[in-house]
C-alpha cells in the first residue's frame, strides 16, 4: 500500500521561490567583481532568475542542456544558478583555477552550449575559445559600462541580455531526479570526472546541511561562503542559505585575510565556510592587527584537514570551529565534528581531540570502512581502511564514464583511508593512493606530514611512498623549510622520533624549494611522485 501524501517533486528552484515569498527582504550582499558593495534581496534575485530562465529559453536552451558558469561568488552568479536550473537545464560550475587546457577539456566533455563568465576570466576563455566547439555564446556577468572588448563568440553583457526579458515566466515542474548541476572533480589522477547532481539530491542535501549540528545557520543568521560556488557544489550553501532565509554575504574575487575580515565585520556575519588556507590568512590578519569579530559564531572548515592549532585559535575566540569532511561526489557533506554526548562537556585539549576528527555523518550519509577485499572493518578508532559511503546525495556514476563505481551494497569508495570510533567519529588517515604500503602494513602519509610540520623550521611537508626492494614501499619525507630557517635531516628525524611507531619513520628526507598544489590547494602528490621517480633510498 502506498502512502496518501502529495507528489511534490524536490526541485531546486522551489527553494528560491520559498525564499522570495517568506524571506523576500532578506539581504544578499556582494563585494562585486567591479569593486563596490552591492545589495539586493531574495525577492529581487528570484525576479531576475526568472528573467534568466526566460532569456535562456528564448535562446533555445532546453531541458538537459548544459550551461557553464566560470565565476566568483556574486549575486549574479547565484541568480544564474537558479535561472539555469529552473528550466531543467544543467548548471555546470567550472573551476577557473584549473589549467586552461583542463578548462577546455571539461567544457568540451560537458558539451556546454552557453558560458557565463566574470570579466576576470574573459582573457583565459579568449585563449581557448577556438577549442570550445560546443559553445554558442558567452554571457559576461557585468553591465554595459564594465563590458570588456572581447573576441568571444556572441558575447553580451549579462545586464543587457536579461534586460531583453520581462520576467513573465513560470518555472517548470519535472521529475525531481532530473539533472540540475554538474561539477568536475579536479582530477589529480587521470581526466577530471563529472559529478551530475539531481534536483532531488541538492534539495535533500540542503535539508541535511540545515541541521543544527551541520552548517546550523537559520533565518536570523548571516552566512559568508568563502568557499566558491564552483568548488564542490558550493558545499550546498547556495541552496541551504535561501531555504532557511539566511542573509548571504558573497565575497566576489577578494578572498585575502583583510578583505574577508572586512566583510565579516561590517556585515556582522555569524557563520562562514571555507578551506584551511583561507582561515590561515584571516587568523594571521587578525593577529597582526589585533582584531576581533564579536558577531562570528561558527567557522565551517573542510576540503583538507583543519589543523589543531587553527581549531584552538577559533575556540579561544569563542567561535565554534566545525571541521567538516566531504567531497564533490557527496554534494559534498560527509561528516562534521561536534561535541555530542558523551563528549558534550569536554573542554581544553580533550575537546580538541574530538573536534580535530573529521566528525560523524548527519542523517542521509552512511559510511563503512573495508579492507582491500571489501571486508568490513571494526569501528574501534584504530583499524584503518577504505572509507565507503552511500546516501541520497552521493554519486552513483560519473557523467559519460562507463564504469561501475559502487560496491555490491551500493557504497561509493571515497578514495580516503580512515578510522571510525565506536561513537561514529571518523578520522581520515590518508588518500588510498597515497597511503604507504610497507611490508603489507599501511603507513599514513598525512600523520607523518602533520608531525613534520610541527617542527618549527618546516613550512610544508609531503610524504610519498618510494619503492623499496625489501618492504615494497617506504616513506620519503619531502620538506620545504621556512624562509631563513635551517634544519638538517637529523634534526627533523630526531624531532619525529618517539612520536610515532619506529617502523613509520621516514627512510629519508628530501629538501625542496616548493611543494606543488592542485587547483583547490591540496598537495599534488602525482607531481611529487613524477619528480622523485628516479629516486632510490640510500643503500638500496
Ligand atoms: P577537489 O580535489 O576538487 O577539492 P573534493 O573537494 O571533492 O575535490 O576533494 C575531496 C577530498 O578532499 C576528500 O576525498 C578528502 O581526501 C579531502 N578532504 C576533504 N575534507 C577533508 C578534511 N576535513 N580532512 C582531510 N581531508 C579532507
Features:
540 residues; alpha/beta; Rossmann fold; Luciferase, domain 3; 8-stranded mixed beta sheet; 7-stranded mixed beta sheet; binds adenosine-5'-diphosphate; ANL_N_sf; ligase activity
How is this structure best described in words?
- With 540 residues, this protein is α/β, with parallel strands linked by helices.
- Among the domains are: 12-201, Rossmann fold; 366-431, Luciferase, domain 3 (Roll), CATH 2.30.38; 436-531, GMP Synthetase, Chain A, domain 3 (2-Layer Sandwich), CATH 3.30.300.
- 27% of the residues lie in helices and 23% in strands.
- It contains 15 helices and 24 strands.
- The protein has helices spanning 12-22, 42-58, 75-85, 100-110, 122-128, 158-163, 199-209, 237-244, 257-266, 276-289, 308-316, 348-355, 445-453, 489-496, 525-531; strands spanning 27-31, 37-41, 66-70, 90-93, 114-117, 137-140, 156-157, 179-184, 194-198, 222-225, 247-250, 271-274, 298-301, 320-326, 333-336, 366-370, 385-390, 412-420, 426-431, 436-438, 441-443, 458-468, 472-481, 508-511.
- The protein has an eight-stranded mixed beta sheet, sandwiched between helices. A seven-stranded mixed beta sheet has the order 7-6-5-3-4-8-9, sandwiched between helices.
- The mean pLDDT is 95.
- The protein binds adenosine-5'-diphosphate.
- Adenosine-5'-diphosphate (ADP) is lined by residues 185-186, 232, 302-305, 323-328, 332, 358, 414-416, 428, 431, 518, 520, 522.
- Its EC number is 6.2.1.44.
- Belongs to the ATP-dependent AMP-binding enzyme family.
- Residues 448-522 form the AMP-binding enzyme C-terminal domain.
- This is 3-methylmercaptopropionyl-CoA ligase.
Amino acid at each position: 500500500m502506498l502512502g496518501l501524501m502529495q507528489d511534490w517533486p524536490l526541485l531546486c528552484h522551489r527553494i528560491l521561490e520559498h525564499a522570495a515569498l517568506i524571506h523576500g527582504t532578506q539581504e544578499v550582499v556582494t563585494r562585486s567583481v567591479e569593486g563596490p558593495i552591492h545589495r539586493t534581496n531574495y525577492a529581487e534575485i528570484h525576479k531576475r532568475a526568472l528573467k534568466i530562465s526566460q532569456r535562456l529559453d528564448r535562446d533555445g536552451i532546453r531541458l538537459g542542456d548544459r550551461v557553464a558558469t566560470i565565476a566568483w561568488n556574486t549575486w549574479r552568479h547565484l541568480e544564474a544558478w537558479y535561472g539555469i536550473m529552473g528550466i531543467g537545464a544543467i548548471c555546470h560550475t567550472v573551476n577557473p583555477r584549473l589549467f586552461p587546457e583542463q578548462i577546455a577539456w571539461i567544457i568540451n566533455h560537458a558539451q556546454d552550449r552557453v558560458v557565463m563568465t566574470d570579466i576576470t576570466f574573459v582573457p583565459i576563455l579568449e585563449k581557448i575559445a577556438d577549442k570550445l566547439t560546443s559553445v554558442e555564446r558567452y554571457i559576461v556577468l557585468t553591465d554595459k559600462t564594465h563590458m570588456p572588448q572581447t573576441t568571444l563568440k556572441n558575447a553580451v553583457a549579462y545586464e543587457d541580455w536579461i534586460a531583453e526579458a520581462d520576467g513573465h515566466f513560470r518555472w517548470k515542474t519535472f521529475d525531481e531526479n532530473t539533472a540540475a548541476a554538474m561539477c568536475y572533480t579536479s582530477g589529480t589522477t587521470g581526466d577530471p570526472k563529472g559529478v551530475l547532481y539531481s534536483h532531488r539530491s541538492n534539495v535533500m542535501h540542503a535539508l541535511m546541511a540545515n541541521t543544527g549540528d551541520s552548517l546550523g545557520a537559520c533565518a536570523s543568521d548571516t552566512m559568508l561562503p568563502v568557499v566558491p560556488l564552483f568548488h564542490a557544489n558550493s558545499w550546498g550553501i547556495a541552496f541551504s542559505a535561501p531555504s532557511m532565509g539566511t542573509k548571504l554575504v558573497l565575497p566576489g574575487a577578494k578572498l585575502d585575510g583583510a578583505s574577508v575580515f572586512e566583510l565579516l565585520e561590517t556585515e556582522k556575519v555569524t557563520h562562514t565556510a571555507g578551506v584551511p588556507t583561507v582561515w590561515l590568512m584571516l587568523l594571521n590578519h587578525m593577529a597582526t592587527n589585533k582584531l576581533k569579530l564579536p558577531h562570528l559564531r561558527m567557522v565551517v572548515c573542510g576540503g583538507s584537514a583543519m589543523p589543531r592549532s587553527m581549531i584552538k585559535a577559533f575556540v579561544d575566540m569563542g567561535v565554534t570551529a566545525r571541521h567538516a569532511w566531504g567531497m564533490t561526489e557527496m554534494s559534498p557533506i560527509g561528516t562534521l565534528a561536534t561535541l555530542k554526548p558523551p563528549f558534550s562537556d569536554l573542554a581544553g585539549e580533550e575537546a580538541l581531540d574530538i573536534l580535530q576528527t573529521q566528525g560523524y555523518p548527519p542523517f542521509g550519509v552512511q559510511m563503512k570502512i573495508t579492507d582491500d577485499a571489501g571486508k568490513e572493518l571494526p569501528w574501534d578508532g584504530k583499524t584503518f581502511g577504505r572509507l565507503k559511503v552511500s546516501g541520497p546525495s552521493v554519486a552513483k556514476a560519473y557523467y559519460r564514464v562507463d564504469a561501475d563505481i559502487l560496491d555490491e551494497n551500493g557504497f561509493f569508495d571515497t578514495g580516503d583511508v580512515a578510522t571510525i570510533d565506536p561513537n561514529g567519529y571518523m578520522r581520515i588517515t590518508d588518500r588510498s593512493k597515497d597511503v604507504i604500503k610497507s611490508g603489507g602494513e599501511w603507513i599514513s602519509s598525512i600523520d607523518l606530514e602533520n608531525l613534520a610540520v610541527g617542527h618549527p623550521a618546516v613550512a610544508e611537508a609531503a610524504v610519498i611512498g618510494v619503492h623499496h626492494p625489501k618492504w615494497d614501499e617506504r616513506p620519503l619525507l619531502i620538506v620545504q623549510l621556512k624562509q631563513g630557517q635551517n634544519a638538517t635531516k637529523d634534526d627533523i628525524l630526531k624531532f619525529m622520533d618517539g612520536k610515532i611507531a619506529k617502523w613509520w619513520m621516514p627512510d629519508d628526507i628530501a629538501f625542496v624549494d616548493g611543494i606543488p598544489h592542485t587547483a583547490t590547494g591540496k598537495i599534488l602528490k602525482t607531481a611529487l611522485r613524477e619528480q622523485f621517480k628516479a629516486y632510490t633510498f640510500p643503500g638500496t
